Amino acid sequence: MRVTEKISCHNYVEADGFAYFSNWFYNGLFKVEILTGKTYFLGCFNGEKYSAKNLHWEIFLKNKRIYFCPWRSKHVHIYNLEEKSLVSVKFKNESEEFYKIEKVILDNNKLFLIPEEKENCMFELDINSLCVTRISGRHEIHGSLLSKCKDFFPADELIKKYGIERADKFWWRQVYQGVWYGFLPLGRHLLKYTEGRNDVEFIQLNVVNETRLKEYLVHVERQILIERLTLGENIDTRISDFLNMFANIKTDEYQTLRLGKSNGGKIWKVLTD
Questions:
Q1: Cα(208)–Cα(5) distance, rounded to whole angstroms?
Q2: pLDDT by residue (tens digit) across 30-52?
Q3: Which of 132, 139, 193, 240 has the highest CB neighbour number within 10 Å of its CB?
Q4: Rounded distance between C-alpha atoms, residue 266 and residue 228, angstroms
Q5: Confidence (pTM)
Q6: What distances in angstroms separate CA 13 from CA 20, 229, 241, one per listed residue?
Q7: Which DSSP helix (H) or strand (E) runs through 191?
Q8: Gap between the Cα atoms of 69 and 123, Å rounded
Q9: Three-state DSSP class for 258?
């Protein structure tokens, strides 16, 4: 399955029968009707590359707002369920080197973002004013560590039975009493487990606004192509798709391609395979 065909997440929140999440494999905001698998593409997260993976890790719902907490992202993204609007709060400067957020702590109306590396500063976000404060050094932070506020899935043996890959990278949620849901990491399915049964139900994710998603994925695929050419990686795509994407590369993107090695050879390989 191609990257752009995958719809999954590390974690999600449930609201009014829908699961809301940040897509694992590219920049995309989705909601899924839990009982049916009907899937809606809601847009992308502003300020991030179309092709960016693993933008968010922790997620929580508070006062009708969904907070997407960064892992590889430069922003905290906030989706307002009532207004159906998305706000991006930038906390890292463009000039800063890349680093991931390891821990997220919520203390009333304060959100703390703690990087993996101790030499990098922490960040405090006031979720009312949306003001960001940089905190130098490491200090004891009080509040709830979001990674420890998750339900424990009661049937780990089923993970092995169904051979679910990357099972340690996603979380199940008990949405209804005794009924658990999680997203298949490397596919396009919602998983359902009912306590007392020795099986998992696979619910197909069917995108309702498929046309809108396909139009958006053109941008994602083109960016993936440019990145792979630049890094000299293998290109796994159909010739027609490749030529269409390559023909639509913009002038500034050609400048990026000149930095890559053996691009001509990579292009020739696609055309001759």
A1: 14
A2: 999 999 999 999 999 999 999 99
A3: 193
A4: 9
A5: 0.86
A6: 5, 36, 35
A7: strand 189-194
A8: 12
A9: coil
